[in-house]
Write a structure and sequence with these properties.
globular; 11 helices
């Protein structure tokens, strides 16, 4: 069993524009188009059984339409997809939209402070955490050497302030600042994923990060359409891990977290 715990999809009519925006933000070539059909096709070739899919609302006006799109995508592929809602701290009725997301079967929330231009620990974001603590996990883009919004220190403060909040820190808790992130976050109650990290880490370094956090707290993720499950699994399989550690990371941890 393999579950990709971090994949993005977009409606076909805007997929090209959305993917181009991500590539520009990170100054990286985007090899894939962000369409659900492409995700599943690549996943089939790689042997991925399920995907946790999401998208990010860059403005509060996009929240409802994105959540409806993700929910409809899951309904059309219930055996393959698990959906996460988006939320924006400026959205007027956070509790109401979280309730709607739950009613539509979505299993978590995704935020990206650097895209959405807010600090993880700002008072507006705290309204989101208050609505979902003990109810839904939250996947948070964490870390970027260029910005202050998603600093691991801010993530640590949120975890301290919301002890019952199930947090997944994307990219080993700190994209582009991986070692610093482990210093700040490895003792916190949280999960991390492998997405958008293995390209920059040696297999031995990746194993070190996994064991610093604890293999029981690590999730496999690709960050599609930025990366492919084929290439991510190829890199993951080079990491010196035990069979038990691989099984935890590839599916058991996310199954336990989401109760799926």
């Amino acid at each position: 069993m393999i579950i990709d715990a971090h994949a993005h999809i977009f409606p076909e009519k805007i997929a090209d524009k959305a993917v181009a925006g991500i590539g520009s933000f990170y100054d990286l070539n985007m090899a894939f188009d962000g369409k659900l059909s492409t995700l599943i096709d690549i996943g089939d070739k790689a042997g991925v059984d399920k995907f946790v899919v999401q998208s990010v609302a860059t403005t509060e006006a996009q929240v409802e339409s994105i959540n409806t799109f993700i929910a409809d995508s899951v309904k059309s592929n219930p055996d393959r997809l698990i959906g996460f809602a988006t939320m924006h701290p400026n959205y007027a009725d956070i509790q109401g939209e979280i309730d709607r997301a739950v009613s539509m079967g979505l299993k978590g929330v995704k935020i990206h402070p650097d895209f959405q231009h807010f600090e993880i620990d700002c008072k507006e974001a705290y309204k989101i955490y208050e609505c979902i603590e003990g109810r839904l996990p939250i996947l948070v883009h964490t870390g970027d050497f260029r910005y202050e919004w998603s600093k691991p220190e801010r993530m640590a403060k949120v975890i301290d302030d919301f002890p019952k909040l199930d947090v997944i820190g994307a990219h080993f808790g700190g994209w582009s600042v991986w070692e610093h992130a482990t210093d700040v976050l490895s003792k916190k109650r949280m999960w991390v994923d492998t997405s958008s990290s293995l390209y920059a880490l040696s297999p031995d370094k990746a194993a070190e990060l996994i064991r610093t956090y604890g293999a029981e707290k690590v999730l496999f993720g690709t960050d599609f359409p930025m990366w492919s499950a084929l290439s991510e699994l190829e890199m993951f399989n080079k990491i010196p891990l035990t069979d038990e550690e691989r099984e935890l990371i590839l599916h058991k941890n996310i199954e336990n977290l989401l109760k799926v």
